[in-house]
Amino acid sequence: MLRYVTTNGGKVREAREYLGDEVRQLDFDYTEVQAAELAPIAAHGAREAYRHAGEPVLVDDAGLFVRGFDGFPGPYSAYVEGTLGVEAVRRLVSRELDDTRATFRCVLAYCDGEAFDATPDPVDRDDRVAAAAAGADGDADDDAEADDTLPVKLFEGVVRGEIVEARGDGGFGYDPIFEHDGSTFAEMGPEEKNAVSHRGRALEKFGEWFQER
Prior knowledge:
By secondary structure, the chain is α+β, with helices and mostly antiparallel strands. It has a single domain (2-212), classed as Alpha-Beta Complex (Maf protein). Helices cover 38% and strands 23% of the residues. The protein contains eight helices and eight strands. α1 (9-19) packs across α8. The longest helix is centred in the first third of the chain and has 16 residues, at 38-53. The radius of gyration is 18 Å and the shape is globular.
């Protein structure tokens, strides 16, 4: 059994395309730490979700990275979508930038409480929760607790495109304004989008590794 931590049922259906029916949704509101990159956010969420569920979990964090804005909104994509809106982002890019190139990025973080063999995919071993529990002046027992970290395996998927006027009725979030290979994500059917999306590419990497896990 693998718990995909999300409130979005569409993500779970997409994950099952790569991982099979053993994937189950876990609706758990983990703490989203503030960070300039996706990986530490996803890793923190995976550790927190594993401590909650006590079984293997998969957490994703994704964002839209606009080249001309030095990657903004990036890890803040959901917040920007909820406050400014997708169309406001498109207008800002159109008005301020000649270079409309952007990338969608997704990082999947997997935690099952066990160690990982070395592979090309990175492993995050920085467990700030355990370190904070020990404290700067902790005794020997506290130091042992700090060392009891939960390693998290990370898998990244990236797709390149550009920001365009909204087209299409499918998808969600920034899909209508993100064009890849002539079509926006919102113009693609589910199977077509899954085959090229950032999350799909990350899931493919994870699925190949997970089969051997």
